[in-house]
Known about the structure:
Elements: E1 3-8, H1 14-25, E2 28-31, H2 32-40, H3 44-51, H4 53-67, E3 73-76, H5 85-94, E4 95-101, H6 104-111, H7 125-140, E5 145-148, H8 154-166
Parallel strand pairs: 1-3, 1-4, 2-3, 4-5
Helix pairs in contact: 1-8, 2-4, 3-4, 6-7
The structure holds shikimate-3-phosphate.
Amino acid sequence: MKNIALVGFMGTGKSTIAALLAKKLQLGYVDLDGKIEEKEGMRIVDIFSQKGEPYFRKVEKDIVAEISLNEGKIIACGGGVVLDEENVKNLKKSGFMICLEAAPEVILKRTKNYKYRPLLNVADPKLKIDELLKKRKPYYAKADYTVDTSGLNTREVAALILSWLEGKT
Ligand code: S3P
């Protein structure tokens, strides 16, 4: 079985859905942000503040390339992974790229109580969410399949993905 890479904005449920899909499909689960933290021995917020975003993106890119050498994994990607063309190529070469989306208000609600996302640790997170969503729209549109998770629970999102996959395999 090919990989299934979940992409999409912060707070769209990628990690939760990826873990659920891995369980249902009995495949391995990879959390890209977790891999980055493991490799660097630092939390993402600290990588951003001490080493900078370009450094983070470089580590992210190396790990995407490494993961994409193999198949059979459900990969929860960080929200910015699609910004790099080579990441998209690698993820699509080894599997399906599925995008989870959600309305900006839903994203705000789901992310506002957490401080581990450096890009949203700003005075006006809603403005930042709107700006980033607008900028990233064409990148997320590269996905093979997209699910709007706004009004759905995790089981419903997983069911949509599973039925889409059935038509592909
Ligand atoms: C980022 C999303 C984060 C993490 C980093 C940058 C982004 O992952 O990779 O903070 O650029 O959207 P999640 O989407 O899992 O929060």
